[in-house]
Design a protein that fits this description.
Elements lengths: L1 E7 L5 E5 L8 E4 L4 E7 L10 E5 L5 E6 L11 E5 L12 E7 L13 E3 L9 E4 L7 E6 L5 E3 L1 E3 L22 E3 L13
Antiparallel strand pairs: 1-4, 2-3, 2-5, 5-6, 7-8, 8-11, 9-13, 10-11, 12-14
């Protein structure tokens, strides 16, 4: 996981950022035109920490040791959304079921039907969200009722769901989050149309 720090600086000294969970800590960058930008690789997913920054001149003299307490340094909570294992595709049964898995336990109160965005062609009503096993704040079933024929393709935008430590989610990824809803579709592939 990589986080980019940018900030103001008042010298042409090297700027250092230091923390135990930063790979190769401390990580340095050069103050140019009163600003610096440093890409920092973290070893801990979901890290939220106060970071030390300081400058050092050519002779190695350190100054300006400051804690950037205002910065919550986090690696985003990854999230996948895929059709549920038991979900047939295509289907004529509503609602359509999907499974959402976060890499970190979330604050369930921040995960609402408004966070589920359908990018498919079907018109859908509001989703229902239910936590499922292992019941540790990471895994949820999302039930989406289509109100017209078409594809149901749910996604979750970045930073719409938070953990209790206020770590935001990354944009959702998937391997199969598309289900075709058709009121005359086979409920099970291979069955004859009625």
């Amino acid at each position: 996981q990589t986080v980019t720090f940018t900030g103001a600086c008042t010298t042409t000294d090297t700027v250092f950022i230091s923390h135990a969970d930063i790979t190769g800590s401390p990580v340095s960058g050069t103050c140019t035109a009163s600003a610096y930008s440093i890409n920092v690789p973290f070893t801990t997913t979901g890290l939220k920490a106060n970071i030390q920054t300081y400058t050092q001149d050519i002779a190695g003299n350190q100054s300006g040791n400051t804690t950037l307490a205002s910065l919550n340094v986090v690696a985003a909570n990854t999230v996948t959304i895929n059709q549920a294992i038991a979900q047939t595709d295509p289907t004529n049964i509503s609602p359509v079921l999907f499974t959402v898995v976060f890499s970190l336990p979330i604050n369930a109160a921040t995960f609402t039907p408004a966070d589920i965005i359908n990018t498919g062609t079907a018109t859908v009503a509001a989703a229902t969200i239910t936590e499922i096993a292992p019941n540790n704040g990471t895994t949820f079933q999302v039930s989406i009722p289509p109100t017209s024929n078409g594809t149901v393709i749910p996604t979750i935008a970045a930073s719409s769901v938070m953990t209790l430590a206020l770590v935001p989610n990354a944009v959702s990824s998937s391997t199969d989050n598309t289900v075709t809803y058709d009121t005359v579709a086979d409920a099970a592939p291979g069955a004859p149309d009625m």
